[in-house]
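REQUEST FORM: STRUCTURE PREDICTION
Request ID: SP-0412
Submitted by: Lab K.M.
Chain count: 1
Length (residues): 257
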Amino acid sequence: MKTLSVEKKESIAVIQLQRPSCLNAVNTQMLMELQQQFEELQSDKTVKGVLLTGAEGNFAAGVDLQEIRHFTPLEAIDFAEKGQQLCSLIENFPRPVLTAVNGYALGAGLEIALSSDYILADETAQFGFRELCYGVLPAFGGTQRLPRLVGKSRAKEILFTGQMVSAEEALRIGLVNQLFPQKSLLDDVLQQLQRICSSGLLSLQMAKEVIDTGYEINLRAACKMERDAFAVCFSTEDQKEGMGAFMEKRKPQFTGR
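STATUS: Completed
RESULT:
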């Protein structure tokens, strides 16, 4: 792979965007390599979670303008569809996906981060959408996911002005869940993801699906979906192990069955 590095740390896959010469700007090859990795990880049962991050002080400083500046409308559609397919794949990945952001997370980079379960950052992080300054707009779902996370008027402000959002402001408006020290960001996020993945993976997967699907439908239907998912848990070995371990005052040994 030319644009990524992938490393397994116990049961966590750490994917690092690696185009440092252009601040990890997103190009077609990166989109295709990320899609390939997430498709492979989806079928790898030894992977319980994914951590996305960037190399050498940045997450991703937007799309690679050198590649796209002379696109025809048809080429632009193809590029946007590739990006949307990737973001949908990340969003619907059956296990937790966290993004650790240092430095720039702009444009397409921010759109990729927004498709993960949530974003964590250090004090160097800066977020934004500069697309309107280039005469275009976000194309990987940014105009849709950002309002759902921070509210419509705040999203419009970020998109319309193109101004950078600092790490502290991102935390305040709910774009980022937590801030960590720069030196320990990756270790802290990895530890958090490992704690998350120590739960029963089947119930974790169902919780993610119920939250994501229920958010888009009415409350009554969503609560019924939650009820049914709760009931399904009682057909699993993980439920018996989890409750049994609690009653026996021992650490559970989940098998994902």
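NOTES: Strands lie at 4-9, 12-17, 49-54, 60-61, 97-101, 104-106, 118-122, 126-128, 165-166, 178-180.
Reviewed by: T.R.
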